[in-house]
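lol ok so funny story. i was supposed to be doing the assay writeup but got distracted and ended up predicting the structure for this chain instead. priorities right. anyway since i did it might as well share w the group, maybe its usefull for someone
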Amino acid sequence: MARRASSYLYRMARWTRDLEVLSSGNPKRIARRAKNKLLGRRLSRIFRW
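and the output, tada:
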C-alpha cells in the first residue's frame, strides 16, 4: 500500500510540474520539459532494470 501511495505522489508531482511549466508561457522552458520527458521515456525503454 505504501508503494502505491508514493507512486501516486510522485505522479502528481510530475503532473504539477508540467502544469507549472505550461502556465509559465515560456517557450524555452516548455520545449526543454518536453524534450527531457521524451528523452527519459526513450532511455527507460533502452535501460530496463
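The first helix runs from residue 2 to 24. The chain has a mean pLDDT of 92.
back to the writeup now i swear
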